[in-house]
Amino acid sequence: MTILVTGSAGHLGEALMRTLRGAKRAAVGVDVKPSQYTDHVGSIADRAFVRDAMRGVDAVLHTATLHKPHVATHTRQDFVDTNVSGTLNLLEEALSASVRQFVFTSTTSVYGYALNPVPGAPAVWVDEDLVPIPKNIYGITKLAAENLCALFQRKFGLPCIVLRTSRFFPEIDDNADTRGRYADANVKANEFLYRRVDVADVVDAHFLALERAAAIGFSRYVISATTPFARSETASLRNHATSIVSAHVPEYAAEFARRGWSMFTDIGRVYDNAKARAELHWKPRFDFAHVVSLLKTQDDFRSELARRIGSKGYHEETFEEGPYPVD
After folding, report:
1. What confidence tens digit (pLDDT) does each residue in 32-81 have?
2. 3-state secondary structure 145-213
3. Cα–Cα distance for residue pair 115/124, rounded to 1 Å
């Protein structure tokens, strides 16, 4: 099987290509940027380029995208061209090339405004049944691309799996208040409770999606670290998160104290990966308890794959106000 990986110079794209090549599996990488994991340099918005890249391909892992950090630096048309038209090009050329499986990397950002509870309300339980309310062009175009995948499965029988991934990038937080109050590693460790995932686990989810696509046909999955929380705890998480975390992972407190870290007192959302674990047979390794166990012996709790990839960044230039301008 030859696998086409779009966005091969990006964070997840490189992770997939590294893993595929390390396993001696046939893989072709495409990206607008050259890299050691990019075999063809060009845009997925270019139909002819996509057609050439699709020759001899059996499966597609579509990670190429304009991201949330590009909202303030790129036009809405740029987002439509890459995230919607580019996905349509890939789907149509995949059909023409008799591709057998198509996996689309989406994002939990499609939920948008649905992620924000009103004051006094419980934390939002985020699973595949939560109705997305995109709040920017990024979320809108990713949701549109998801629906294109659904269309091509229903109309043409192309097995398509959508993976809504949570945060796995290593860049610093885009919220200035969060950056000012917490060390970066502290923020990321806390997020494994409810909104972060290690890239190695994301890679595993993509390969399992390829294996299960034919049997499933079409479905969407939340891809995030396994939370220790239960839906019944969502009200308490708004003001008493520290005590809830202590009840589930009591050993965290001593390790955080040793480092001068602190736990968030208010957690407003919780991503639930139960459907992905049940239907894709996904077994993510990196959850909050595992992170705490790693912190006892080392400073870097990322997987070896995440450490090898490092930070990609989203822009050539740097910005004084943060990792990228916030729209």
Report:
1. 999 999 999 999 999 999 999 999 999 999 999 998 877 888 899 999 99
2. HHHHHHHHHHHHCCCEEEEEECECCCCCCCCHHHHHHCCHHHHHHHHCCCCECCHHHHHHHHHHHHHHH
3. 6
What does the chain come to in residues?
327
Which conformational region is residue 310 in: left (phi greater than 0), alpha (psi within -120 to 50 degrees), or beta? left
Q: Collapse the DSSP code of 75 into the 3-class scheme (helix H, G, I; strand E, B; otherwise coil) and give the result.
A: coil
What does the alpha-carbon distance between residue 200 and residue 204 come to, in Å, rounded to a whole number?
Answer: 6
d(CA 8, CA 26): 14
Q: Which residues contact 24 (CB under 8 A, 6 or more apart)?
A: none
Q: In sequence order, what are the beta bridge partners of 219?
A: 161
Q: Are strands 59-62 and 27-31 parallel, antiparallel or unpaired?
A: unpaired
For residue 46, the 8-state DSSP code is -
What is the per-residue pLDDT across 78-95, written as a single tens digit (0 to 9) for each?
999 999 999 999 999 999
CA separation for the pair 83, 134 (Å, rounded) = 14
Question: Residue 115 — pLDDT band, cuts 50, 70, 90?
Answer: very high
DSSP helix/strand/coil, 38: coil
Cβ contacts of 111-116, under 8 Å, gap ≥ 24: 111/139, 112/136, 112/139, 115/268, 115/269, 116/268, 116/269
Give the pLDDT confidence score for residue 68 in this predicted structure.
Answer: 84
Where in the chain are the domains? Answer: 3-305
CA gap 118, 49 in Å, rounded: 46
- The DSSP bridge pattern shows strands 101-107 and 218-223 to be unpaired
Fold of 3-305: Rossmann fold (3.40.50)
